[in-house]
Amino acid sequence: MLKKRLIFTLLYDGTGFVLSRNFRLQRVGDLSWLQKNYNFENTARSIDELIVLNVAREKSDQNSFSEALKSLSKGCFVPIAAGGGIRTIGDAGLLLKSGADKVVINTLLSTNLNIVQDIANKYGKQCIVGSIDMKRGLDGQFVQYVDCGTTRLSEHPRSILERMKDGVVGEIYLNSMDRDGTGQGFDFDMLDLLPKDFPKPVILAGGVGNSSHLDFGLRDNRVDAVATAHLFNFIGSGLESARNNLRTVGHRFPTWNYVDID
Q1: Residue 58, burial from CB neighbour count under 10 angstroms (0-12, 13-18, 19+)
Q2: pTM of the predicted structure, to 2 decimals
Q3: Whether 133 is catalytic
Q4: Which of 13, 48, 133, 224 is catalytic?
């Protein structure tokens, strides 16, 4: 059995960290609050990757976000993927220089794939996570949104995923806007949009409320990683408990060896 990944996603709005429910944001606290309640040197031992997204609705301040990323990455020894507001190769480079190992790209996948290709050419496609936010329309069919969920695309998500099959991204982050922050569990129907024999690793997000939801996600053979962005459901030792529960029911995760450096 291949090892899968447990991912924690943090949402940053330009001044602090926020909760999201159906892409409506509620501010929670700043870096000090996050460190007090999560102590990332310990939290990082319970996850396989950290994703940090800049979800500011106003014009994104990449410099401010990069400074927050630098502070957050201190003492966090798992891979970090960062994104939100990336519009140029310079934006991607800034995040990679600020502690990110990968960049998460959403809007550019649909508006300017040439820039995504430029980022891949310079840094390698393995460092690009293609993020797709989708929700159901009135007819029950999935539609995709970009620009922090404010702009609906006419192109069907299936077409975009088909383009990503042999495209310039290293993996895909599928996020349900309908389930976002609800704690009702994943929307597995999103996975039915994947092309047959999709070769890229798939991260499933949106809807996690407890470790059983993570378990169900990891049991799907189309899923390589599960992600949760719900700060309060996994506060304190919540992520450690979830990882232990998942191991108990048979899931295998990468093993990280930590060395304390004085």
Answers
A1: exposed
A2: 0.93
A3: yes
A4: 133
